[in-house]
Amino acid sequence: MTGTAGKRETRASAQWFPVVWRLSARLFQTSWEDLVGDPAAASYCLREGLRLFCGDYLLAWFDPAWEAEALGTKVERGPLGEVIRFKTLGSPAPAGSPDQWVSSFPIRHVLGVTERLQREVGSRTRVVGYLTGLRTLSTYVTGPDHTVERLEPLAQLACQIAQAYGEAGVRAVAVFEEEPLDEARWVHALEPVLNLCNYFGQEVFFFAFHPLPDLVRRVLRRHGARWMVHPGSNEPSLVVWQVDGLEKTDLAQRALDQNNMVVTSWDVPPDADPSVIRAVGRRLGKVLEP
Fold first, then answer.
1. What are phi and psi of 62, to 5 degrees?
2. Architecture of domain 20-283
3. Measured between alpha carbons, how far is residue 16 from residues 56, 241, 261 in Å?
């Protein structure tokens, strides 16, 4: 690894993906205004978080409302960008085209931060591009009245972002879905996005805040999602560390087994004890060289 992210020596084959976006911002005193206004500041705090927690994967952004803001949703936020309340567009479809949306400030900024990290962290680390799940995005844009027609422009926007990640050389993409997925149509709508990720050879993570039904998991698997992270996950070679019990839960011994992926179940809360997360990296053999 090059630059300020430091050098790492890996002594175990298990891969470590700590989602520590807001925790890194807090630890390195980076405000939301700096995160969204200064790509260098955003990149610095995320690289230093990678260095501290010795991850193999680095999530470049974490915000379920950033695409919705690009489409016109009004969002009120807390000190680290957490969504306090929002006002949907309330229209059948957002105005404009995917080409116009992807050139708007929120999306240009996130793509810029992601591309910057891709250049700065070196080849040992996989930078992970962020996408909001379509049902969550639909909730932020048009409210709880979800229809297939309303999903189509949102899926087109997600395709534009995924293509931008691929063209920038980003080697992994993570989809974060806060809403329950009780129907397969939510993931069928993602098929073009996942096809693009497959075309660019990107590793796909699908994070779900709620348990995923068997049918939804099968559809995701068929469309190319490699890792499905959700409550009760029992995927082969995947060890999920639940963020709501970080200090109470010890990793199973199988986390050290060959070819396993160890990942936090969601973004680690910003008030979490960083030594607990750092200890996991050490246990997995991820040691930061001085």
1. -150, 105
2. Alpha-Beta Barrel (3.20)
3. 5, 11, 6
User: 80: closest CA among 267, 273, 274?
Assistant: 267
Can you give the pTM of this predicted structure?
A: 0.90
Where do the domains of the chain lie? 20-283
- Rounded to 5 degrees, φ, ψ at 228 are -115, 110
Are the C-beta atoms of 276 and 237 separated by less than 8 Å?
Answer: no
Residue with structure tokens 């040691």? 287
Specify the residue for token string 């591009």.
129
3-state secondary structure 77-124: ECCCCCEEEEECCCCCCCCCCHHHHHCCHHHHHHHHHHHHHHHHCCCC
Residue 129 makes CB contacts below 8 A (sequence gap 6+) with: 60, 61, 114, 161, 162, 165, 170, 172, 173, 174, 202
By CB atoms closer than 10 A (0-12, 13-18, 19+), residue 290 is exposed
pLDDT tens for the chain, 290 residues: list them. 344 444 444 444 789 999 999 999 999 999 999 999 999 999 999 999 999 999 999 999 999 999 999 988 999 999 999 999 999 877 656 777 778 888 888 999 999 999 999 999 988 899 999 999 999 999 999 887 666 667 888 999 999 999 999 999 999 999 999 999 887 888 888 999 999 999 999 999 999 999 999 999 998 998 889 999 999 888 888 888 888 776 655 665 556 666 789 999 999 999 999 998 888 888 887 765 44
